Amino acid sequence: MARFVTVAKADSIQPGQMIKVEIDNLPVAVANVGGAFHAFDDTCTHEDCSLAEGELARTVVTCPCHFAEFDIRTGAVLAPPATVPLKVYPVRVQGNDLQVEF
Amino acid sequence: MPTIAIVGASLTGASAAATLREEGFDGRVVLLGAEPQLPYDRPPLSKAYLRGGMPFEKTLLRQPEFYRERDIETRLGTRVVSVDPGKRTLELQGGERLEFDSVLIATGGRNRRFPIPGLDLPGVYDLRTVADADRIRDAVARGGRAVVVGMGFIGAEVAASIRQCGLEVTAIEPFKTPLYRALGEEIGRVVEGLHRDHGVELVLGDAVSAFEGNGRVERVVTRSGRRVECELAVFGLGIEPATELVAGTSVRTDNGIVVDEYCRTNVPGIFAAGDVANHYHPVCARQMRVEHWQNGVKQGAAAARSMLGRAQPYDEVHWFWSDQYDANIQYAGFHAAWDAVVVRGSLPTRKFMAFYMAEGRVESVVAINQGRDLRRALAIIKARVAVDPARLEDPNVDLRTLAPPETPP
Description:
- The structure holds two protein chains of two kinds.
- Chain A has strands spanning 4-9, 18-23, 26-33, 36-41, 55-57, 60-62, 69-71, 77-79, 88-89, 91-94, 97-101.
- Chain A is mainly beta.
- Chain A has one domain (4-101): Rieske [2Fe-2S] iron-sulphur domain (Rieske Iron-sulfur Protein, 3-layer Sandwich).
- In chain A, strand 6 and strand 7 form a beta hairpin.
- By secondary structure, chain B is an alpha/beta fold.
- Chain B contains nine helices and 26 strands.
- In chain B, helix 1 packs parallel to helix 7.
- The longest helix of chain B is centred in the middle third of the chain and has 18 residues, at 180-197.
- The model of chain B has no long low-confidence stretch (mean pLDDT 96).
- The A-B interface holds A 47, 49, 53-55, 62-67, 80-81, 83 and B 41, 43, 48, 61, 293-294, 297, 319, 321, 323, 328, 370-372, 375-376.
């Protein structure tokens, strides 16, 4: 059953930054885009690479290994070599707790 | 109804076909391929697919319905024999003729073969297609020792993959280091260390003089007299552009099919892109031919737009990757020669970038496990301005601050 999991303090991620957390042993990336938070699978759908180690430009994340691009709001593929969309998760802030619905 | 034919159901061809429809072309699009499969991705063939961890379906660039929904006619298993630029027809294998209004030639390349005795022995393989990869996989499954001949990018990836499958691997390379021609000695030594650390036996500065065996390869003999017993051998000695389609026509060839920055050949209505295209690059101000995945995608799309009269100069900074073991190697730019290599990061730990400099400018960059920074360096390459080496090598300097801001046209 989906539940909200506290993954970090909201003020620990600066705008334009991404962090990598683990929920149930699954790596999840959380990004701060101008104060709005987005969570998505940290592992690129193309190959086994950490998206949090890639580049974030507004709501587009670029994988560091092969430059696949995703829209982190929807998970849509914006550039190959990825062909499979990225899974994204709802996020909420409770006080200073950043929570991901998982 | 106008017809656009695309010769080569490849990464480049598929990208061009998709772009034609995205751009609203509503004429006939015919995508012709010599191989029987729908366009598939070749990078996995030397890596995940070769190791057996990836089904073929996962390499398909697009699912069958993609072509159906966009009314892209696919003619697979169909070799195109010749093009008649005057009549604007293609002659297909079997004699059929196909009329076109414009054609994109995306025939790629074929593996170079040298007259080495025994090269045709069973058990000696090369890698270009999924059928080639299947043959190597079957041989790897039987185990034993493999010899890899040529440590360019394909050879190095194949050596890594076979080693990861648990076989003993000996690699023979005529230059001083793996990837020597592409990356030079300093970085080549790093890649040498990568393979030695994973248990590959490297024979450098030596070349194969013969493949020997009784009905099947049993050993590889080198010029220095070394004999390496083996159950299989794979050679990767580069490719040559597949230009025979235009042989004897007025289409100009010179290390590929010569095109301008709009993917146009010297003959109206005939375009070329991908590995086969010796293209003019506006940033580097010279002709060049590259064999990169990204160029296949982007130049295929650029050619499609050009065919529709919406051409923009194709000026992508060339870029490619190679995955070997746990090393993600990336290269961006294009260097013919360099006068200095500036390193940012640590060579021994294999986490660094190396900038190939000429007259103070960054011509190209290679990175191992530093993909984010490499991406940030693309603007520096494109800007073609002198950069302070001390700032390049300082890991605290954000590379994005070193390129002048792009001025809007």
